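Sequence and structure are no longer studied apart. As an example, we show below a sequence and the tokens encoding its fold:
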Amino acid sequence: MFNKNIKMILAAALVGFAGYQFVEGEIGNGIALILLAGIFVFLYYRNEIILLAFLRMRKQDLEGTEKWLAKIKSPKAALTTKQRGYYNYLHGIIYSQKNLTQAEKYFRKALKLGLNMDYDVAMAKLSLAGIAMQKRRKREATTLLSEAKKLDKNNMLTDQIRMMQQQMKRI
């Protein structure tokens, strides 16, 4: 809800006040304030609205996910680079049900900004491969599928990759 810079200012102020509490002998208050500052630091790196949008996505509620993402008015100012990557990744998943051209744009932007987890990068590339396959760009789909296969270290997307490769043989 707060801007990312305000979160860090609040965390620094809480740590400073915790230091004052330690000097005054109020050790318990100081520890509690440091833990509270830790929450603001955590929320700096993991935006609370994106976390709530992921919870909605887990429940397959695309409308709810879109509502939570709409609460972020200016992603460039409110989010760090990786958070903007996930913001675009979630939009790509939403638009893959509606408009493939928009979904492709969002997935490419998410990959450009960066995603933390290899699984998410593999999922984005797999989705891009599916979009390229539907648009009859077989060469691009093949390269994206091979990249997704390399990134899928836990073999969570093996069935989807195999199914897409079988569909590509028919084209």
In short: The mean pLDDT is 86. The two ends are 47 Å apart (CA to CA). DSSP finds ten helices and no strands in the chain. Residues 1-45 form one domain.
